[in-house]
Amino acid sequence: PERSIDHVDGHTTAIKVTSISTTLVNYTLSFSNTNKMDATTDSTAASSSSPSSMKRTSLSGCWKLDKTRGTPSMRGYLETMGVNEMAIEAHEKGESEYDTIHSITIDGKHLQVVKRSRVNNDLKVNLEFGKEFVETMSGGRVKKMLATSDNPQHVDIRSSLNTMNGMALVTDIKRLIQEEDKSVLVQELTVINEQTGNEHLTTRYFIPYTDTPSHLVPDPMQIS
Predict the structure, then answer these.
(1) Helices within 1-38 (DSSP H only)
(2) 38, 90, 152, 221: which could join 58 in a potential S-S bond, CB 3.0 to 4.6 Å?
(3) In this prediction, what percent of the chain has a pLDDT beyond 90?
């Protein structure tokens, strides 16, 4: 039997727990090149992530999770969502052993966020500022997202999803701060489980990612 557990990280990630004789947890912990970022987004992100862009004036570009500060682990977030311990440990293992990269593109009225990690293989969200995005999930559940921004250094994404563990309300605030040697993206992720009344704030820091993201590296097998 297959059981699906949904949680929201400003966006929605599907977690599947599969039982085959003994319980195995599979979060698709592999880097697949089957899902690619749009060519326009790729070129924009790559350009914004050049070595000269350690100082930035916008959230646009590639960012790598800084595991040395804040609360890089999503444990508190997932516990509030009602995710089981085995699933949480698998999530923590994936993010601790591999880099988490966020590629952000802000283009006037639009926002694209592409998350690439051992847990999420190019999880992509495209939103139009000020316009609610509504999607019907499996089982008739409805996911809603709304992004707002008053400048390219700040984004506020509000999400709601009726999960298997109750209604989840998520506020994902991303803001740019300046340090002496670099710019830093600060993510403040607040989740509320309406069924339990539990609430949790996770604060994560991302630094400019100046290497070529793995999803932009040409596949040697495809080069003639």
Answers:
(1) none
(2) 152
(3) 46
